[in-house]
Amino acid sequence: MPGDEFVKDAGLVVTRAVTVDAAAERVWPWVAQLGQGRGGFYSYDFLENLIGCDIHSADRIVPEWQFIEVGAEVRLHPEIGLAVARVDPGRVLVLRGGIPIGRSAPPYDFTWAFVLIDGDDGTTRLVVRERYGYSRRWAWLLVEPVELVSFVMSRRMMRGIKERAQRIPSDWSAIVFEPR
């Protein structure tokens, strides 16, 4: 999968997917604007905000949030972000990084990939993959129990993207995305 090249010896790989009844060009804008201070994560905002994430998931496409490039930061929280490691506009977004523990570097390397695959019937398969490469032997004790939370939040996020992409707004054809 795209993004696997960044964390070669992953201690944990989790792949989730959902079929969206819409073409990839309808799904991508929601993926492109992911992030705190942007489109949010289309999940359970109230849970994310309990820990200070200040997430407000968008219900519309915001043209200013459509252009993302390698090296940009996608924030998870006002003080925590992941770097954009790869972008194939309309198809792939790979984020990379980790959450530090206090002043210490994260005990793992992490990628979070969003991949859109065309279906034969006009649908899109949204595949979301997490890869964790442990840099400390004990890192799995931190990461793997949190995977249950990730499952719940990711499942809702994928459904949130699906619901939004499947909507047919009256002004969809009027949205034009041009590079800044």
Summed up:
The protein is of the alpha+beta class. The protein has three helices and six strands; from the N terminus they run βααβββββα. The chain has a single domain (4-169), classed as START domain (Alpha-D-Glucose-1,6-Bisphosphate, Chain A, domain 4, 2-Layer Sandwich).
Describe, in plain words, how this protein is organized in 3D.
The chain has 180 residues and is an alpha+beta fold. The protein has a single domain, classed as Alpha-D-Glucose-1,6-Bisphosphate, Chain A, domain 4, CATH 3.30.530. The chain is 24% helix and 28% strand. Strand 3 (80-88) and strand 4 form a beta hairpin. The relative contact order is 0.25. The model is unreliable at 176-180 (pLDDT under 50).
